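Hi there,

I know you've been waiting on this one. I reran it after we fixed the sequence typo, so this is the corrected version. Both the input and the resulting structure follow.
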Amino acid sequence: MIERNISDFIAVLDTQGIIQYASPSHGKIFGIPSSAVVGKRAVDLIHPDDSPFIEERFAELVREEPYYDPIEVRYRNAEGLWLVIEVRGNTILHEGLVTAIVIIVREISRRKNDEAFMHYMAYHDALTGLPNRAAFYEKLESYINRESSTDELTALIMLDLDEFKQINDTHGHIVGDHLLRAVARTLETLAGPFGFVARLAGDEFVIVMPHLLAHDEISPFTANILSSLQKGVRVQETTFSITASIGVSFHPSHGCTVDDLLSQADQVQYVAKRRGKNQYVLVGQPSDDAAVNG
């Protein structure tokens, strides 16, 4: 029969959800003989968290309310691993009544893993593993939308490493790449569980710090970034003392879009560079007051 040669798993269920027939391909796909599942309730074989959803869809089929989109649930194989399967169902009618359900199952774990990998690559920087520009835009936009009805502030910290080109030219691009990775890990550690660190390009990083109540709350954190980088970042057998120029803008004080906040932070970052680098500047503060630090 055809079903012996196809990679999909085919089963016939009665109206109580009991498996009456399972194609031989079940053994090939899941490592469990088809005879081992005949007589069992299909819903008992899938992940408990997916059971309520699959039971609802099965009841719709019995009531002749067919669904057309495939359903994704988890199904345990012989090794005890939960695989992702795609399920489609159709009814068998006799004298106008539903007498059985035919389901076609396709194991799609590899496809789901590939999709997850592609999604990761689309939203992460290949060199450092940090979220990239696309991920940063989505994250900051989510905070902007969330805080539209609150009094909280979100700080956007824009950071460029000073003289990074000189390090690349002197020590080579391989050392430069290792240094960028080390800086990324340092920034992640400093930002903690609530901060969001991303690499935009080259030696340009951004940090999003939400849930602030006042602008000056960010100053100790930003000063700590400068101090930590200056203390040294170790790459292979060399410790590099690094400085950075930082500009900080706030939502909603300095804009209601990501581009607005980036533009504002970029402008004051330029002030930090012009004044000698190794310092941070907050938007809206005079460049010679306490908001400028080295």
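Quick highlight: The CA atoms of residues 35 and 206 lie 57 Å apart.

Best,
R. S.
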